Amino acid sequence: MTFKLAIVGRPNVGKSTLFNRLAGKRLALVDDRPGVTRDRREAPASIFDLDFVIVDTAGLEDTTDQSLEARMRRQTAQAVREADAVLFLVDARAGLTPLDEHFADLLRQSSTPVIVAANKCEGNSAQAGLLEAFALGFGEPIALSGEHGLGIDELYERLKAIAGERPQPPEQEEAPEDKIQLAIAGRPNTGKSTLVNRLLGEDRMLTGPEAGITRDSIAVDCTWRGRTLRLVDTAGLRRRARVEDRVERLSVADTLRAINFAQVVILLLDATLGMEKQDLTIARQVVDEGRALVIGLNKWDLIDNRALALKQVEDRLLRSFPQTRGIPVVTLSAETGRGVDRLLDAVFGAYDVWNKRLPTAALNRWLEQVTAQHPPPAPRGRRIRLKYITQARNRPPTFAISCSNAEDLPDSYLRYLENALRTDFDLPGTPIRLHLKRSKNPYAQE
Fold first, then answer.
1. Is 437 helix (H, G, I), strand (E, B) or coil?
2. Which residues are paired to 52 by β-bridges?
3. How far apart are CA 442 and CA 396, in angstroms?
């Protein structure tokens, strides 16, 4: 088992800043306003020779109803239960607050070891707050600065002592896994987090009737029928003109980064609304990045005329993406679980096509046939010859064609070749890249 450290504390004490410091990357969204973090996020971290998993949590609120803040608190409580140690962060500049003392009482009821750290200790003004942290009763507090890296060495000593008390399991060599990076994207309130929870079999992500609950792109591992997935739940993408809030702009950038690093993207639609312009914009972003795309029609249990709803989405896709025919469309209900297995089957199928490699000999026989059936045009009387084709790489399938007068070959003929490749080699829905390589004229003067 991996040693797991959960960072907890009231809002705006610097938990996400410290999380990014320990993870060595800017993974969590950081802003001056409180309450930016909502879901709990995990990442590998290390201090010197100590490797562990760090967990960023939402700011603790004193509420126990069904509000969003109460649901965030329950997520934090779950992180504390699963952790091997808790880093209780207080703001040294603001000093100890009644909310800090209230949650210290709650942490005392847990059997998880607690380390108190006074954050933002980079100035003399924080000295009083550091001394006040003694009153929490968890021993000597650590003077920390997540922004500047102050106190990390002392945190290492505390964590090393706790980690050393745990029995170490025997080391086992693990075979490398072919883990599929799967991002779930879409407009706000289409059920992305509900789908992730359904796949995981637990309430891992915050869900609710409010639109835009998810802000960070949260990655979790999942195994489905023996295949490993790296699920990434992303924030909803609204039209750019409507995005004014700074935190939402950060969320949008985080979502686009998740799409860029994904291998397969599920674009989740609200079936009651159909496919709108913003959905097409997101789909185009996925295709332009060369990622495999699967369309999920969620909330299918709320649709009366299902044949019409499905046909409208398929027709809109065909009109908007004629160059990427065969994008799978799967109907489902993340709330009830119906259709989720078919959605994952479509994801694995799209990944296999996106990862496909074609033999060079078969490609060149194909090129000879398609150019014989429909020869390239001869602009200005100059004949264009397609001499040779090979697959340069996969992910997505990318082909290099050796061609004379490559600059004169029209885009319409490239689309003809792309459609023929898609049909003849069974490459539905995946982006295809064709690159023309100008062949040298042996009679040209150097």
1. strand
2. 45
3. 33
pLDDT greater than 50 at residue 143: yes
- CATH of 360-438, picked from 2.60.40.1080, 3.30.565.60, 3.30.300.20, 3.30.2290.10, is 3.30.300.20
Cβ 156 vs Cβ 85: under 8 Å: no
Over range 391-396, report the average pLDDT.
91
CA angle 189/239/284 to nearest 5° reads 95
- Report how far residue 295's alpha carbon sits from residue 317's, in angstroms, rounded to the nearest whole number: 10
> For residue 359, what are the contacts with CB-CB under 8 A and spacing of at least 6?
none
In the chain, CATH 3.30.300.20 covers: 360-438
**CATH number of the domain at 180-354, please?**
3.40.50.300
Task: For residue 111, give every residue at least 6 positions away whose Cβ sits within 8 Å of its Cβ, in sequence order, or none.
Answer: none
Q: How many CB atoms lie within 10 A of CB 315?
A: 11
339, pLDDT greater than 90: yes
Classify 268 as helix, strand or coil.
strand
Rounded distance, CA 81 to CA 109, Å? Answer: 11
- Domain(s) of CATH 3.40.50.300: residues in the chain: 4-164, 180-354
User: Is the dihedral angle over the CA atoms 354, 359, 364, 365 positive or is it negative?
Assistant: negative
Under DSSP, is residue 187 helix (H, G, I), strand (E, B) or coil? Answer: coil
Going 223 to 226 to 228 to 232, the CA torsion angle's sign is negative
Model confidence at 335: pLDDT above 70:
yes
Helices (H), 141-276: 152-164, 192-200, 246-261
pLDDT at 337 over 80: yes
> Parallel, antiparallel, or unpaired: how do β-strands 386-393 and 114-119 relate?
unpaired
Residue range 4-164 in CATH 3.40.50.300: yes
Give me the amino acid identity at 327.
I
Q: What angle, rounded to 10 degrees, do the helices at 360-373 and 411-424 form?
A: 120
Percentage of the chain surpassing pLDDT 70? Answer: 83
Amino acid type, 320: S
Task: Give the other-Cβ count within 10 Å of 440's Cβ.
Answer: 8
* DSSP secondary structure string for all residues of 321-370: -GGGTT--EEE--TTT-TTHHHHHHHHHHHHHHHT----HHHHHHHHHHH
Tell me the per-residue pLDDT of 227-257, one tens digit each, with 9 for 90 and over. Answer: 888 888 887 777 665 556 665 677 777 788 8
Beta-carbon contacts of residue 158 (< 8 Å; ≥ 6 apart): 115, 142
Contact in structure between 232 and 218 (CB atoms under 8 Å): yes
The Cβ-side half-sphere exposure at 91, using a 13 Å CA radius, reads 15
State pLDDT tens for residues 49-85.
Answer: 889 998 888 766 666 556 666 667 777 778 888 889 9
